[in-house]
Design brief:
The structure holds two protein chains of two kinds. Chain A is α+β, with helices and mostly antiparallel strands. Chain A contains eight helices and eleven strands. Chain B is of the alpha/beta class.
Chain lengths: 259, 129
Amino acid sequence: MQNFERNGYLINNHEDNNSYKQLKEIVEESIKISVKNICGNKLKSLSKLHETVNNINVNEVRMHSYNLINSFPNLHDLCFSLIKNQINKLLGPDLAVQLKVNLSIVPPNDKSSIIPLHSDINTGESIHEIVSWIPFTKCYSSNSLFITDLKESLKLHKNLAFLNKPNQPTISEYAELNLKPQYLNMDINQNLIFTPIMYHGSNTNLTNDTRVSINYRLKNLFSPYLHHDCEGKSLSTFYKRYKISKLTEVTDSYKKPIF
Amino acid sequence: MIITYTSMRPIPIGRFSSKDQNIIIKKYCQNENINFSIPFPEFVYPNCFIQLFNIFGLASCNSNIIFFSSTQFFDYPGNIGELVNCFRGKFDTISFASENYQINLNQNYKELEKIIEELRDTKHIKIKT
């Protein structure tokens, strides 16, 4: 946990390997079905998806798979069981979870899969959430997520207005010089949690392996939902009530007097 | 290179979630037979165009950019001529998915200047809810 305070992120070994195995089956089978439906071909392996799917079809495969994956009723429980203890320490027992789990498919040399440098709070997400990121292929070098230095991320948030001019260094150029972006090397028995304050993103994948990962967000149920004026990130539109404490169970049954 | 660009703050035509903006842009791409790419979302802060400036740095020359709406320019704080020159440096066309409209920047860049100027004149318009 000290690493989280210092770095703003933690790479964990999965707390429940059996849940990860089930999760991987769901993701793999969903993508296989989608590839078969959309491209008419049989997928050999997730990391070699680019050998079966043209970059033009990647987004359609991703959206089809995303819908299949999110139709599994135990999806959130499987995801949560990988990080349950860490989350309880960070967020407490009352939790809201992102309604839909996102799927990323990043094939080699696909420019349409680039996620530019950003911090989730800049696009309106709650500063109080934790992002959980779970890979299903080995993540290394440019096929992985890059993440930046926490102190430098905080400094950039404070001084962000400085970059709001054309013909100045862009946020990506600033990050390259000052934020020390680092690709995270992760095995498939590991997952990542990080604060949305951290600037992160993904570049063109210059490796020979497709990266497949999912991500979703958890937050304390009673913490504020919006960062600035933004649409669609509230409880019921973006998050749902997920876990409650014994105290919340009791207070939920309280009915105020009507005079 | 095709780049798509959405707004995470309210704009004069209303408040739209990223999901809804993506749907409109995807539909536009389908109709125009363009390959959809994941949008660059602009930050929530008023008058902020940091992600757009980032796009100017990342895009290759002769790219095309698709905005969710032309009204995303309504609170642009800087010099319009300078902004349009940045577009012309990287993009051949700019499209506006909600309005189903596109401008050829090599031929009609003045039209883009006019759109932004008119939007800024009406920036007192209340955001539709």
